[in-house]
Amino acid sequence: xxxxERTAAILVxxxxxxxxxxxxxxxxxxxxxxxxxxxxxxxxSGHPDVFAVQPVVNxxxxxxxxxxxxxxRHQPPTPGGATRQASVHAGLEALAKEKPDxxxxxxxxxxxxxxxxxxxxxxxxxxxxxxxxxxxxxxxxKVIGGSADVEATPDRxxxxxxxxxxAFRFDVILQAHRRAVREGRNDFTDDAALAEWAGLTxxxxxxxxxxxxxxxxxxxxxxxxxxxxxxxxxRTGTGYDVHAFGDGDHVMICGVRVxxxxxxxxHSDGDVGLHALVDAVLGALADGDIGSHFxxxxxxxxxxxxxxxxxxxxxxxxARGGRIANLEVTLICERPKIGPLRDTMRARIxxxxxxxxxxVAVKATTSERLGFTGRExxxxxxxxxxxxxxxxxxxxxxxGWSA
Length: 403
Known about the structure:
Elements: E1 7-13, E2 30-31, E3 34-35, H1 36-45, E4 50-57, H2 62-68, E5 78-79, H3 84-95, E6 102-107, H4 115-128, E7 130-136, E8 143-144, E9 150-152, E10 160-162, E11 166-169, H5 170-182, H6 191-197, E12 203-206, H7 217-230, E13 233-246, E14 250-253, E15 256-259, E16 263-264, H8 272-285, H9 290-293, H10 307-319, E17 323-332, H11 342-353, E18 360-365, H12 371-374, E19 378-389, E20 396-397, E21 400-401
Helix pairs in contact: 3-5, 8-10
């Protein structure tokens, strides 16, 4: 029985993406609540037939890269070159010691590649040795001369738009890149063109119209709107928490250390604001409560910082393809005074949750000296969370619920 072929992927992420406008390199900007490069890499890292993912990055972006793809499986990143062609060559040389049979070369600025496209790339290359994904041209194309006059109208039936991942036998495309370096050729805009120059026949396979390259700021706006339109399952959850005062000189509220004459009696840091928010997010997911995920009987959470609990709840939303739309917390206490710290707390919640501060509200009220909060025996908090998820409930169709 023949040995299964080993497939690796190169993620080209060394460009600066200046046409995408302000906000830094486009591969590190967010779209749909995740960085572009995370979305691009995630599908390769999780594909069962891809054993290694080799990122190629700008050396100045090392910290950005590590933060943007945290949690994903990949090889140590290798520095890119001055051109895309040079960056691909660097990725190929970095992978040479792994001895893959097939290599997939993908642009980090294409965040919507699917597992199906990757599988088609591997299958096509196993048959042909070199293959690229393409989609039909639907508009009429004109060839324009130097005077801006139309010179020709190509037959669009024979035209295709090339995408990535472009896939090749590893040893063949590596040798082609090495030859291009020897002969001083550095002007190829994609690997298929270089392969054609080297004498390879490049086959095509079905691409995906959604697998588009993000180039301009308008691309980001359009794709954000498209992603939002897919998140039709809008859910709201609520949360409540209370902690009594004990000895101490500060309390943690909404991730902020607040000086106070007392501290909280609690197993963790007692952050009532974040605890209520965690329950609100988990409630919107119908995914238990904070106690079921972080039981107070577990010694690991003794004195724990509550920001990790909120991060966990937000990651549960992200793992289901969802987004946080709004977080709101109301603090009920006589003291400490919340008003002067309101925006600091909003900013901290936004930072923990990975959302914009405009989606976070912090409110405060007293109980008019009534009850335990009125007697300054503790603090209570209520919270709400609105999230958006893809509509994927089993049993639902366009006619309603089925039996």
